[in-house]
Design goal:
mainly alpha; Arc Repressor Mutant, subunit A
Length: 107
């Protein structure tokens, strides 16, 4: 992951609502969630949710899939993993034996 892409991703996640949306999508796994479900879970108006989904998509953190007349949003687990890898690539001066274990996504 490039420095600029990491900066954009972290900036997107630096907003309380966007972080909450992203966490819900991560919890949903590969099946994702519908916008209405996200709006209800976070008590957000549709226009507000749409604004935040657009920001997360622009940062490359989420994807969407058209299914008939609905859109389902999913966390981009490859992007999330790349961001974590970028943040930890030089952990403990390159001595991985001294670093805490990394979390892995099993979704």
């Amino acid at each position: 992951m490039e420095h600029a892409a990491a900066t954009n991703a972290l900036s997107a996640l630096g907003h309380t609502t966007r972080l909450s949306v992203f966490r819900l999508l991560v919890q949903a796994g590969r099946s994702g969630r519908l916008p209405g479900d996200l709006a209800e879970a976070l008590d957000l108006p549709g226009a507000t949710l749409s604004f935040h989904l657009k920001a997360l998509a622009a940062a490359g953190l989420i994807t969407s899939e058209q299914r008939g007349r609905t859109i389902r949003y999913q966390a981009d687990f490859d992007a999330m993993t790349a961001l974590v890898a970028y943040l930890t690539e030089n952990c403990c001066a390159g001595d991985g034996s001294d670093c805490p274990p990394s979390a892995s996504c099993t979704s």
